[in-house]
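I'll show an entry:

:::
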Amino acid sequence: MLDLLGGEPTALTRLRMVRSKPVPFPPEPVRSGVIQLTRWSIARADRDEGRRNLWLRTLDRLGLGFDS
């Protein structure tokens, strides 16, 4: 932070995570709906002997999967 405030170019201030903004979380109505869908899907997979629905398979393909 001090290097950024001082305007000093260092190896740390050149990092991509320092130079760019992070991906924002979706707005609240969407976020809570996605969370509820994910929770419901995980509970259903637990009930159905581990069979994952389309939503959980999609999250797995994106690298955001949950092992229940």
